[in-house]
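Technical appendix A lists one of the benchmark inputs used to test multi-chain prediction within the project. The record comprises two sequence entries:
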Amino acid sequence: MLHTSHFAAVLLFALFASVVFGITQRETPRRMFRYGIYCFTLFVCSAVVLSWVMFLIAR
Amino acid sequence: MLYSQKGMATAANKQVVGQNSQQGFVYLPLIAGWLVPGAGHFLLRKWGRGVLIAASVFGMFSLGLAMKGRIYTGAQDILDMLGMAGDLGNGLLFLVCRVLGVGADQVQVTTADYGTKFIVVAGLLNVIAAVDAHNLRTGRKS
């Protein structure tokens, strides 16, 4: 059984989702790559920000 | 020219319609892409895109299984129905796992909850990829 931390799961999720989003939502390889990087960054950063928000609310 | 000739029976449009009708079943990449991740793009000779999509969907699905994620077998409430709909997006992967009894029946650990979501999202990504293959086939996207 695979035991991953929450952050590792976020990274894996962001990686796979960003690859598919990049390929399907843009037309040229360069724009696909840039959009994939953009989605990956947004996924990871939003997860970190929301985690801090929930941490502060829970205190 | 002040008006659009899109959809009109001009010589250029007739040629395009003729080419499309000769290329066979329009929905084949959509169905193939749903049943086997990446197959829709492979049919259209988009090898790089197909490999990346297949790796992403297979990777996410298998990681979900490795985390002891649950594969939905029935729909008792609305959340189960939504999860089942997401799982069905995996096509043959879902059917094979159902037949072989792979996947946990109950979520017992935290990582299994992540795994269940990985499997559902893999299905949803596969549907997006299959629709993309259909758009490539119809010429809506290049």
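Chain B touches chain A through 27 residues (CB under 8 Å). Helices of chain B lie at 11-22, 28-35, 39-43, 47-66, 78-88, 92-100, 110-138. Comparable benchmark entries are summarised in Table A2.
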